[in-house]
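pinned: reference chain
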Amino acid sequence: MEPLYQQTHKQVHEIQSHMGRLETADKQSLHLVENEIQASIDQIFSHLERLEILSSKEPPNKRQNAKLRVDQLKYDVQHLQTALRNFQHRRYAREQQERQREELLSRTFTANVSRAPGWGLQALGSSSPLKLGSWSFIFVGGVR
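pinned: its structure tokens
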């Protein structure tokens, strides 16, 4: 049991150090780093299943300590899994915001003259559409 425990414990610490790579990885290698971390986590979970079986076969005077050590590893790995999921969720949300921002910046807007006669662009003698990406807005109207 001890060699498998030591190997698994070492892998947990390696994953913890790899988690820092997520923040610094470029977009191309980010998915690769995520997949590597997830594969390591999956492997650790399979080791933990084996360690639980082995800890139950320990002599009675060592069994409780062995189970506590395995439980601590399991707790650590669950936190790593949660941290990876949280990172992925933040990344997905950030990518969606970027897509929505690009969509808004490329959308062409026109004044709705039929709802507010005299307040639109035609009141200025212009009917050209506004483009949000240009950051030039014309505010027409005011207090009457």
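why pinned: The longest strand covers residues 108-109. The helical segments are 2-24, 27-56, 60-106.
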